[in-house]
Amino acid sequence: MAEALAARLMARLAEIQQELRIPQLALTGGRIAAKAYERLAQEGARSAVDWSQVEFWWGDERYVPADDPERNAKQALDLLDPLQLDPSRVHPMAASDSGEDLDKAAENYAQELGSTVFDLCLLGMGPDGHVASIFPEHPSSYETGDVIAVRSSPKPPPERISLTLPVINRSREVWFLVSGQDKAAAVKMALLGAGPVQVPAAGVSAVGRTLWLVDRDAASELPPDLQQRGLI
Q1: What would the pLDDT profile of 78-117 be if each residue is shown by its tens digit?
Q2: What angle (nearest 5°) sits at the alpha carbon of residue 103, between those of residues 98 and 106?
Q3: For residues 205 and 174, what is the distance between their CA atoms, to the nearest angstrom?
Q4: How does pLDDT run across 115-137, given as a tens digit for each residue?
Q5: How confident is the model at residue 141 (pLDDT cuts 50, 70, 90)?
Q6: Can you tell me the distance from the alpha carbon of 188 to that of 229, in angstroms, rounded to the nearest whole number?
Q7: DSSP-assigned letters across all residues of the chain
Q8: Where are the domains of the chain?
Q9: Fewer Cβ atoms within 10 A, N terminus or C terminus of the chain?
């Protein structure tokens, strides 16, 4: 999956640049994404992508110190460093030691984001169906606005910053990255009609394409007639 994601991502970013546009890319955390970023670092310099002309954003972030290895931004940027990204085009969410409190950090990221529309928004999904830091039956599922402060997260650490579903859903494309048997029930619910409060992943629908990259284990509970149901 990581290899497939890296290859698809390089191809799509190159296509966008061939249209004389600067790709707007929202990154995610998680084990598959980290492996894909590692592959990009190894192969990206030889691809057709001009990495200095890609805008990087994040779908959510753990509100921990900047050097904490749990930060999504640190994981990605440490791996992508060989690609010589343009720092002015990299937009991490604030860390807990930035001098901004959680609410101000979310507010500032919303201002920085403005009306940006992502060409590609990468998303993982938890076993409970959460996406970014929007959790089932949690206050984060009911928050309004573009960027929210998340407290008392069911998954540690308790404080986070997250984009909301309306921002994610204005993306031109959303790519889900889901692997593992522990995600199978959530994949089934997300694709077969669960509500977005019960399963936030079910509320994701890009303006253009919503692509699910799912391994066999995560897809193990899906019915065989998805195409006939119009779901793929």
Answers
A1: 999 999 999 999 999 999 999 999 999 999 999 999 999 9
A2: 75
A3: 8
A4: 999 999 999 999 999 999 999 99
A5: confident
A6: 13
A7: -HHHHHHHHHHHHHHHHHTT---EEEE--SHHHHHHHHHHHHHGGGSS--GGG-EEEESEEE-S-TT-TT-HHHHHHHHHGGG---GGGB-PPPPTTSS--HHHHHHHHHHHHTT---SEEEEE--TT--BTTB-TTSGGGT--SSEEEE-S-SSSSS-EEEE-HHHHHTSSEEEEEE-SGGGHHHHHHHHTT--TTT-GGGG---SSEEEEEE-TTTTTTS-TTTTTTT--
A8: 2-214
A9: C
**CA–CA distance, 218 with 221 (Å, rounded to integer):** 8
According to DSSP, the residues that pair with 132 across neighbouring strands are none
For strands 173-178 and 209-214, give the pairing: parallel
| Ramachandran angles phi, psi of 38, nearest 5° | -65, -40
pLDDT tens profile 34-58: 999 999 999 999 999 999 999 999 9
What is the distance between the alpha carbons of residues 154 and 96, in angstroms, rounded to a whole number? 19
Quick check: 231 pLDDT over 70?
no
Say how many C-beta atoms besides its own lie within 10 A of residue 98's C-beta.
Answer: 15
pTM over 0.90: yes
* Measured distance CA(230)–CA(199) in Å, rounded: 20
Show the tokens assigned to 62.
């753990």
Closest by CA to 125, choosing from 54, 22, 28, is 28
129 CA to centre of own chain? 14
Which phi and psi (to 5°) does residue 103 adopt? -65, -40
pLDDT value of position 226: 65
